[in-house]
Amino acid sequence: MDWLPDAIRDPHGRSLAWTETADPKGVLHTTESSSWPSYRDWADCPHATVLPTPGKGVTVHQHVPFSRASFALVHGSGQQATNTDYAFQFELVGTSDKNGPGYYWPAADDAVLLDLYKKVIKPLSDAYRIPITAPTFKPYPASYGANGVRLSQATWDTYTGWLGHQHVPENDHGDPGAFPWARLMELTSTEDDLPLTDDDAAKVAKAIANQELGKEGIGWAVALQRIYNRPVPTAQDIAAAIVAQFKTLPAGTATVDDATIARIVKAVWDEGATRLVR
Ligand SMILES: [Zn+2]
Questions:
Q1: How far is the CA of 173 from the centre of ligand 1 (A)?
Q2: Which of 115, 61, 51, 116 is nearest to 245 (CA)?
Q3: Which residues, in sequence order, are bridge partners of residue 26?
Q4: pLDDT in the model for residue 238
Q5: Measured in angstroms, how far is the CA atom of residue 276 from the centroid of ligand 1?
Q6: Is the pLDDT at 203 greater than 80, yes or no?
Q7: Buried b (16+ CB within 10 A) or exposed e, 248-263
Q8: Tell me, what's the pLDDT at 254?
Q9: Mean pLDDT over residues 258-269, rounded?
Q10: How far is the CA of 26 from the centre of ligand 1 (A)?
Q11: Ligand 1 centroid from CA 118, angstroms
Q12: Helical segments of 105-250, H only
């Protein structure tokens, strides 16, 4: 996989050859800006940039294919490689600093975190066998410079997993600050122990087909048509969309009652609407 399936391809600047393709790692940065950075300087380009929409999710622009290294880290000459040491790099638009510009990532909302996981962390980890683990993230500004969590060159070389710019040797930046990794893990761990069964999904799908599809009318049909690229969505299509949405709910809330059905209908609808504007 050279490109994330849910990313918009937006090639930028230069890339480098990997000097090592063992011990893959994902590196998180924050742009310290409130909107898309320009990356006019080729040296500043990560693999992808992630724009959060609060309460909704993320939009991902990928600049460099994963077959090449990107360049958003200091890379000391004659020292252990950083950018080219199989480090897949992602800039999160926003800030690590409570007083910084834009979206404050340490307090990222659930929808944004889950979408980051779904569009970036999970697919990349699956494709390149990156363990979905991370060291402690220190808050900014304590994360700047020699922060107690920065890896040695030797440890960085053999580290595999996720981490932040603040953990990379030869660098002094403290982003992404107190990235809420533990909360992200808590949110995503519920995917494996959902109380939702196939029968539950069928029940919800039937309820939606009977009641809500009529209510939402043409919008539904158009959205689902675009998602599945076929004229009429099948019950399985609807059920699959519903199951996907159930998996974004916190554990214990995915029970089949009217309120949940209404919430899921709205979430599936929002998802359809999101895809329509891409
Ligand atoms: Zn950085």
A1: 6
A2: 115
A3: 88, 162
A4: 62
A5: 32
A6: no
A7: bbeeeebebeeebbeb
A8: 54
A9: 65
A10: 12
A11: 22
A12: 110-116, 122-128, 153-158, 181-189, 198-207, 213-216, 218-228, 235-246
What is this structure's pTM?
0.70
Neighbours of ion ligand 1 (CB under 5 A): 29, 165, 173, 175
- Other beta carbons within 10 Å of 179: 27
Say how many Å lie between the CA of residue 243 and the centre of ligand 1. 36
pLDDT of residue 278: 36
pLDDT (average), residues 151-163: 97
The three-class DSSP label of residue 23 is coil
**Mean pLDDT over each residue of the chain, to the nearest integer:** 82
pLDDT of residue 40: 53
Distances 98 to 104, 108, 196, 240 between C-alpha atoms, Å: 7, 12, 38, 39
CA distance 199 to 203: 6
Reading the block at residue 91, the tokens are 């800039």
**Token pair for 249:** 């709910």
Say how far apart CA 239 and CA 40 lie, in whole Å.
45
Distance (Å) from CA 2 to ligand 1 centroid: 22
| Tokens, residue 199 | 């029968």
